[in-house]
Amino acid sequence: MQYALMIYGEPGYLEALSDAEREAAYAEYFAFAEDERCVSGAQLQPAETATCVRVAGGRTLMTDGPFADTKEVLGGFCLVEAADLDEAIELAARIPAARFGGRVEVRPVMRF
């Protein structure tokens, strides 16, 4: 089954680390991407670059910025193939943001 691992963290959390810690975190992200269970993933541009779109009364309405004004922002995602939720949680725990004050939301993916 596929799971989306949505990575939330405080903006700039990696920049706040020492050079050695930052390099180690990036190495962990790259190693995670090489895991055969990782189907896809990407880091997102900063939340300030977001545009929210909704349709109301047949009109397309847009607003600048993220959907919610929060301390933590969606910074990236991974799509993984895991046998069950326990395995997906195990994978999520390997994501450095989870150790540096952020969180990883694990959600099963529905097929169309």
UniProtKB/TrEMBL annotation:
Superkingdom in the source lineage: Bacteria
SUPFAM superfamilies: Dimeric alpha+beta barrel (SSF54909)
Family of the protein in this entry: Belongs to the YciI family.
Domain spans labelled YCII-related: 1-112
Protein name, UniProt field: YCII-related domain-containing protein
Database matches in Gene3D superfamilies: Dimeric alpha+beta barrel (3.30.70.1060)
InterPro entries: Dimeric_a/b-barrel, YCII
